[in-house]
UniProtKB/TrEMBL annotation:
Signal peptide segment: none
Any Pfam family hit: Peptidase_M17_N
InterPro entries, A to Z: Leucine_aapep/pepB, Macro_dom-like, Peptidase_M17_C, Peptidase_M17_leu_NH2_pept, Peptidase_M17_N
Residue ranges annotated for the Cytosol aminopeptidase domain, each copy included: 373-380
Matches recorded under Gene3D superfamilies: Leucine Aminopeptidase, subunit E, domain 1, Zn peptidases
Subunit structure, interactors included: Homohexamer (dimer of homotrimers).
Keywords carried by this UniProt record: Aminopeptidase, Hydrolase, Metal-binding, Protease
Protein name per its UniProtKB record: Cytosol aminopeptidase domain-containing protein
Length: 522
């Protein structure tokens, strides 16, 4: 293994193996460490004698001698989202009973995902190895099947339990070994949904670990190696092609190579391709991710308060989403769809051979770009990646990038901006996001703003004025997409990191997987 700056290497920590199962068992008979009950505010309604009216809560409270109702009253537990109440009470097969608030009514994947996360936190605190989850109201919202509800709970539990301790000298292993989901049915359909949730959750963890890895560990070469590992693991459906700097020069990827020029770490242009194990291919898609493993800003160096240079290891969040999706799809193996995963990976650094403000670079489609700001580098790498994607003969492209601070100002830290001239493609993405629970908002592609992107000496500049910065960036990318290809740009600069916990979120992976599956014949 190559030495890194600071001699840092991540510890090889295996993910905890949890056995998930859907069961039909009476709550009074279930035996384990924690019985977690998901309750809405409506479920917490009590009669004039302060007794629960909900059948499941009424039954549990009866077995516990009224202590559950008492505890909920004393601790002002009303079922609001985020509330929880966990007590060790005698009278059941479970050591502990917990109530977990779902809000006024649980009607989205996000609500049940949140339930899973809360249960995981409680299981950690109680050092529980066996947990069961049941909903007080077993009737699922009309928009969600029982299988999807179970999947959201499983996903929340896996991700809630996970902590990235690879760079810590000491870490505790979670004790959770099994989680039973009660009251949502049994059988192959719900088991399939649970398995799907496990696969996608593990892919999200993979994506989080890529983004969390510091730039002295995750260089462009290391990112290429991680992508190649995915292709090797699922070689029946995935192949990898890593282009060297010389090969990129032969393909005339001048815009990308201009950004990469200053770094001591050479660029790696990464192309994975998914082909179904059997049957004809009906649709060809491309997922393109921004892969800046570190962004100093170049000669327009990031300085001053709010520049966030210390978080710029996360500037490859788009590539993490793309490779996370590849990892999941390599296991799911959808039919009828070919998917190209494309990342032009490099660092944006400063040196005597680096790109200067005012330089003109030439992209692989022949268009020339006057670099008026070296810190608007992501779009320069994406320009060549998008041209390359179009050359693969794809019908639809989705690119993801931590592209602009302007998008974070507009939409805040948890919503990604969506830019596309194609209404049908937008509809597909938002349908996928409804299933994943991730938040997106469609933004305008205002063509009149392109005036600010015109250069006196080249075809365009790489950044316009401060106003409408995220729109200008999307309009720039549009110049490198074939008009026959349906294209969407996702600016995920906000949701790539969890600001409170200072760690990666794995944003985009579950939505991309859903989108690919909606385009497949599976």
């Amino acid at each position: 293994m190559a030495h890194t700056l600071g001699l840092t290497q991540p510890a090889n920590i295996e993910l905890p193996k949890i056995s998930f199962a859907a069961k039909e068992i009476d709550v009074a008979e279930w035996k384990g460490d924690l019985l977690a009950v998901g309750v809405s505010e409506k479920d917490m309604t009590k009669d004039e004698n302060s007794k629960f009216q909900n059948p499941i809560l009424k039954k549990l409270d009866g077995l516990l001698g009224g202590l559950l109702a008492e505890a909920s009253f004393e601790e002002d537990f009303t079922g609001k989202a985020g509330q929880s109440l966990v007590h060790r009470l005698p009278g059941l097969g479970s050591k502990r009973v917990g109530l977990f608030g779902l809000g006024q009514s649980a009607s989205s994947p996000a609500a049940f995902h949140g339930l899973g996360e809360a249960v995981a936190a409680a299981a950690k605190t109680a050092q529980a190895s066996g947990v069961a989850v049941i909903l007080a109201s077993s009737e699922c919202p009309s928009a969600m099947s029982k299988g999807n509800t179970a999947a959201a709970i499983v996903s929340g539990t896996v991700l809630g339990l996970y902590e990235d301790n690879r760079y810590k000298s000491e870490s505790k292993k979670p004790q959770l070994k099994s989680l039973d989901i009660l009251g949502l049915g049994t059988g192959p359909e719900i088991e399939k949904k649970i398995k799907y949730a496990e696969v996608v959750s593990c892919a999200i963890i993979f994506g989080r670990e890529l983004v969390n890895s510091p730039a002295n560990v995750l260089t462009p070469a290391a990112l290429a190696a991680e992508a190649s590992k995915i292709a090797s693991l699922y070689s029946d459906v995935l192949s990898a092609n890593i282009l060297t700097e010389e090969q990129c020069r032969e393909l005339k990827l001048g815009s990308y190579l201009g950004v990469a020029a200053a770094s001591a770490n050479p660029p790696h242009f990464i192309h994975l391709c998914y082909k179904p194990p059997s049957g004809p291919v009906k649709t060809k898609l491309a997922l393109v991710g921004k892969g800046l493993t570190f962004d100093s800003g170049g000669y327009n160096i990031k300085t001053g308060p709010g520049c966030s240079i210390e978080t710029m290891k996360a500037d490859m969040g788009g590539s993490a989403a793309v490779f996370g999706a590849a990892k999941a799809l390599g296991q799911i193996k959808p039919s009828g769809v070919e998917v190209h995963f494309i990342v032009a990976s490099c660092e944006n650094m400063i040196s005597g051979k680096g790109m200067r403000p005012g330089d003109i670079v030439t992209a692989s489609n022949g268009k020339t770009i006057e670099v008026n700001n070296t810190d608007a580098e992501g779009r320069l790498t994406l320009a060549d990646a998008l041209v390359y994607a179009c050359n693969q003969g794809v019908e639809k492209i989705v690119d993801l990038a931590t592209l602009t601070g302007a998008c974070v100002v507009a939409l805040g830290p948890s919503i990604a901006g969506v830019f596309t001239p194609n209404d049908d493609l937008a509809k597909e993405l938002f349908q996928a996001s409804e299933a994943s629970g991730e938040k997106f908002w469609r933004m305008p592609l205002e063509e009149s703003y392109w005036e600010s992107m015109k250069s006196g000496v080249a075809d365009m500049v790489n950044t316009g004025g401060r106003q409408g910065g995220a729109i200008n960036a999307a309009l720039f990318l549009k110049q490198f997409v074939d008009e026959k290809v349906k294209w969407m740009h996702i600016d995920m600069a906000g949701p790539v990191l969890n600001d409170k916990k200072h760690v990666a979120t794995g944003f985009g992976i579950s939505t991309l997987v859903e989108w690919v599956l909606k385009n497949s014949s599976s």
